[in-house]
Structures are given as C-alpha cells and as structure tokens.
Amino acid sequence: MSISESKLHILKLLELCVTIFRGPNADEWSTLATVGVPELIVRVQKNSDTLLAPIQKLNQLLTDITDEKTSVLETEYVRLFIAGPGGIPAPLYASCHLGTTPRTMGQSALDMQNRLQQAGLEISLDSNEPADHLTIELEFLFYLLSEGWFNQSEQADQGIEFAESVMLPWVRRFRDALNTASPHPVFACAADITVAMLEAVSKV
After folding, report:
1. Which domains does the chain have, with CATH numbers?
2. Which 3 state secondary structure label does DSSP give 66?
C-alpha cells in the first residue's frame, strides 16, 4: 500500500538523522552532500516549511564538501559524541539526558532493550552500543512508523507515542547540550532536523 508524501519525508529524514549521528565516513558525507540532502529538499519543499528550513541550511553547509572538510567533521564527531577533552559534551544516549545522574546503561537503555525484544528486533552493530543510543531509537521509530503506515496497523500509533513521550524530551535536552559545546554547524543543524522531525511525526 502506498503512503502520503509527507510520511515518506519523515521516513527519509529518519534515515538522514541515523546516518549523521552514526558517524559517516568521507564517502557517506559526499553522498549526503551530492544526492541525499538535495533530494530531500525537492521532496520536502512541497509539503513542509517547518522541515524545509533546517534541511536547506544543512544543504548549504555541505556544499562543495572536500576531503579536508570531511576530516574536520569526523574529528568533530569524536569530540562531541565519543571522547572530548574534559568529557563528552553531548553523549548520544538517552540515559545521559534525563535529569538523573548521567550514565550509560541506565534504566532508559533497559526499557529500550525491552521494547526491541517485544517487537522481535535485535541490535546488529559492530560496536556494543546500549539500546538507548540515538540512532537505535531512531531506527526503532522508523520500524514502527513504516510498518504502521504501510500496513495501516496500530504500530503507527505506537511510533507516534514513542516519538512524543520517549524521544522528544531527551532529544531536546541532547540538542541543548550539543549547542553549549560550540559544535560544528552541521551537527547543530542535524540536531535541529531531528527535533523538528520528531515534532512533525504526529502531524503528518
């Protein structure tokens, strides 16, 4: 069954956010700059002014990307999300942004692992990431929405509830933490896109 263009845009944006926050290599950055983001602009500009603005900004930031620029982005990814001087400014885990003592493998990771198990899903990554990693939650949301929208099932409602109740509160805090660390504009823009996309999920 086909779904609306606006719903397809949400799914494409989910894929974009997963790619950026998983840490693209040089070839993946180049593909985003030359194909992925320009195609999204063409699709989204017909349906959503709210989502269009941050995507256009990202497109401008990625214009004429070079090996030197991608090297800077890869270095910045490490500083912001993996091992920055004096600590990690913006960890990619929900448990680090929930107002409790920041730590990985907190209750949110256990809750997320339970959601995956109940859905019959497994984490398949080279690294042993806790289940509340941003990209894992985004992929889970992609699964719920795509299954629900294409099959007209209750999983769409589950996805909307997951986006609004589980993801938005901590992703907004994650964006705030990121912005205090003077991030490269590409990552700041990607965080804005992620928040805007999550806010738009229930409105499509």
Report:
1. 5-203 (1.10.3480.10)
2. coil
**Contact criterion met (CB below 8 Å) for 1 and 168:** no
Place of tokens 């990771």: 109
In the chain, how many H helices and how many E strands?
A: 10, 0
Write out pLDDT tens, residues 57-95.
999 999 877 888 899 999 999 999 999 788 899 999 999
Convert the pLDDT of each residue in 89-114 to its tens digit: 999 999 999 876 656 667 888 999 99
* Residue 13 to residue 40: CA distance in whole angstroms: 8
DSSP string, 165-194: IIIHHHHHHHHHHHHTT---HHHHHHHHHH
Contact call for residues 137 and 94 (beta carbons, < 8 A) = yes
Residue 95 near residue 173 (C-beta atoms within 8 A): no
Smallest CA-to-CA distance from 112 within 162, 54, 51, 43 is with 162
Residues 6+ apart with CB under 8 A from 12: 40, 43
What gap in Å lies between CA 159 and CA 35, rounded to an integer? 28
